């Protein structure tokens, strides 16, 4: 199991994991993967100023943790503590919604690129187009959540800055809807997500694109980005409170160790808490120049290990329930050897989503064939795969239904 601990708890024999979490926003996270050899290693890590570290308890030398507990079992265990969410059924099939959602996603990427460039170059942004775009995204989510959530996985590495803003916006709306919020609040969560990193446009490039770990002074500058975005939008006027709170508080942590204000627990607004979960999930599952994307179920399992520290108690569990153990767009192998793309999450039984079979049992590409795993007794998901490694493009497969 992946667990986040303070470096004060780090011991020789523990196995450190590189999660790919950006050290740009987490310079105090030690992420040099491998076994910690000795007490002097531990001292060095602490002396270099690292405060936190992710460890994999299954790979430690202590061997106390039961082997063979999969991420799926951890996630299933987390979900057993939650009540049945009451499923919001899609209004249209995902294939029908996918066409509209693709056009909308591309339009929103162009808009997001525009606002970040304007903010950087002119110090002002035209926010008037944001509301209709967010309303359209909400419409798509209401018709069939799976289309936009699937598209969020198609991100282009070069466009990360923009797709990340959009994904945080749309996933915040999806999560908020799952939590039972109405359309007005959901649209505000969408706007907060879209603008959450606006302040980064004012952070100097030598910090924002630094190829090395930031110095404490540089990190102080970086920590200013939520406040810069917040101040800009507050001065501009007419921006709803939830949007301002979401932008200002998306890096606050439940345990008070976040920034910029070090708020803790219920001091953090609901919008701030939701954005914090979604922001980390999208960052972990994104492909970046310097890292491969983490598989969604691994990212969720890792975030489950951060519950009660970074995130409000219970919130990660609900996010897992919202996305499913195998979120839409995940590539999985069945016990039959067939490979599939998850096309619709099953919120009642997250281990049994709807899938599209895209490779036959011998690993040969085949024309996509839908299969509902719900109620199947002999066929089940055996493992989750890296789509690139097996040559499957989940977006194309989903669009091809
Ligand atoms: Fe941020």
TrEMBL record:
Annotated HD-GYP domain ranges read 139-335
Q: Which PANTHER family match?
A: CYCLIC DI-GMP PHOSPHODIESTERASE PA4108, CYCLIC DI-GMP PHOSPHODIESTERASE PA4108-RELATED
Which lineage?
Answer: Bacteria, Pseudomonadati, Thermodesulfobacteriota, Desulfovibrionia, Desulfovibrionales
The record ties this protein, via SMART domains, to: HDc
Q: What is the protein's given name?
A: Metal dependent phosphohydrolase
Gene3D superfamilies recorded for this chain?
Answer: Hypothetical protein af1432 (1.10.3210.10)
Give the source's domain of life in one word.
Bacteria
Is this entry keyworded Hydrolase?
yes
User: Per the record's keyword annotation, is Calcium included, yes or no?
Assistant: no
Q: Give one Pfam family.
A: DUF3391
Which GO molecular function terms does the record list?
hydrolase activity
Write the record's keywords in alphabetical order, separated by commas: Hydrolase
Name the CDD domains for this protein.
Answer: HDc
**Source organism:** Nitratidesulfovibrio vulgaris (strain DP4)
